[in-house]
């Protein structure tokens, strides 16, 4: 125990510990001690700097709060969210794109306004707008890059290229590739070369989150420039890795006013239930939207079908009507388009969206 020695001091009771040899050393060589401390400080700084990774290797993942999902990636949360309804605008004029084909699945053009009737529920509506011109379109390509596409991906890329050859110069495009998750690989652009170039760097792997990709594509359409909007899906199987359910996506499609065209590339042997349900899934989704689904079993047919869809999109009739009983009830209003073909034509088939959601205001 150190003895306390009282020395003379101007302050009574001031205590000083007994001076040890170590204390005597530090008190007698202040400059040497200062130099030693500076050296140790520099050494620690160098060590810390050496352990700091290069700035290019740092990756910071933004934190996503559960009640504030990432605006750019609506699928960033780890839990499934029920989709948020799209904004429903007040319906003044309902526009209905219509495709007409013959028994050999060929487009029928040259029809007039008098050849169409449109019903909302049981009420016949007056067709106030009629057009058959090639209007600019906002279009998103939803491209399957799951592992099962490995043997078909080159043909699928070629199909996208052929599809773009039918484009109107004013059209705008974006692309989403999907496997385990969907990813936007190209923002809206009028450069088809840019979209094709980005597609070359995608590598098939993983499972098939088709429904999540459709959700992301419809969400992206909120940024579209044109009222005519469509998605083209190219996939080889049913969904087996999505967070969203089929029912949620179908409800979203009804709200979105986006036509969906799909090309299903299916093998003759479908080993899983998801793959067996793939054709009906794409067909149902396309039919609800007023688009069409094409099923092929030979990847070599991809380019021809993609070209056919591109031509069809640009040779549609557009009917417009103002509802006779405009109810702002937020409910689903069924639409039925009937054809009055000129005499002498064979039975024709009509493709159109099946309804719309009314606004609540």
Verbal overview:
Mean pLDDT is 79; it is low at 1-28 and 31-90. The strands form four sheets. Strands 9-8-7-10-11-12 form a six-stranded mixed β-sheet, sandwiched between helices. Strands 6-13-3-15 form a four-stranded antiparallel β-sheet. Strands 5-4-14-16 form a four-stranded antiparallel β-sheet, with no helix packed on it. Helices cover 28% and strands 24% of the residues. The chain has helices at 21-28, 30-51, 153-164, 192-199, 210-220, 246-256, 273-289, 302-313; strands at 4-6, 15-17, 94-101, 116-120, 123-125, 129-131, 138-144, 172-178, 182-189, 229-235, 259-265, 293-296, 317-321, 332-339, 349-352, 355-357.
- CATH class of the largest domain, anyone? Alpha Beta
CATH topology of the largest domain: Rossmann fold
End-to-end distance? 87 Å
The share of residues in extended strands comes to 15-25%
| Count of alpha and pi helical runs | 8
CATH architecture of the largest domain, by name, is 3-Layer(aba) Sandwich
At the fourth level of CATH, the homologous superfamily of the largest domain is von Willebrand factor, type A domain
The shape, in one word, is globular
